[in-house]
Amino acid sequence: MALKPFQPRYRAIFRDDEARAELAVRFWKEIVAALKETDALTTANLARADRYVRAKVEYECLYPAAAKDGPVKEGPNGGDVFNFMWSAVEKLNDRLLKLEKAMFGEAVSRPAV
User: Fold this and answer.
1) Which of 51-60, 73-82, 94-103 has the lowest mean pLDDT?
2) pLDDT score for 93
3) Using CA atoms, how far apart are residues 85 and 83, in angstroms rounded to an integer?
4) SS3 state of residue 104
5) In whole angstroms, how large is the CA radius of gyration of the chain?
6) What is the DSSP string of 52-102?
7) Pair 55, 14: CB distance under 8 Å
8) Cβ atoms 5, 44 nearer than 8 A
9) Positive or negative: CA dihedral 63, 58, 106, 32
């Protein structure tokens, strides 16, 4: 019997942010389609997919501001200070990569035809 993926209730999870909820739904559909395409649709990968979607939504929302300010920004006293939002984006990026590897394995190039 084929595994039927049930989408988490992202509208309830991201309850006062419709844009994030819509983004989550879109990412969920994309990741489930990729899992089906690679024949990797398992219970464990669906749990990873949910974690991936939540992290990806946060990453997409934080990245524009973090990229604008860069890793170092001007502090309250005029000196340079580390941008903690930049650090959060880097950590989310690392988490996304680990989840992608867990779901799909390492990327390998296809041989030339």
Assistant:
1) 73-82
2) 95
3) 5
4) helix
5) 17
6) HHHHHHHHHHHHHHHHHH-SEEE-TTSSEEE-HHHHHHHHHHHHHHHHHHH
7) no
8) no
9) negative
Contacting residues for 8 by C-beta, under 8 A, at least 6 apart: 28, 50, 53
* Alpha carbons 27 and 99: distance in angstroms, whole number: 14
Read off the pLDDT band of 34 (50, 70, 90). Answer: very high
Given CA atoms 104, 106, 112, 113 in this order, what sign does their dihedral have? negative
What pTM did the predictor assign?
Answer: 0.85
In this prediction, residue 2 has a pLDDT band, given cuts at 50, 70 and 90, of low
Question: How high does pLDDT run on average in the chain?
Answer: 91
The average pLDDT across 36-50 equals 94
Query: What is the sign of the dihedral through the CA atoms of 112, 41, 30 and 4?
Result: positive
What is the residue whose two structure tokens read 């994309």? 30
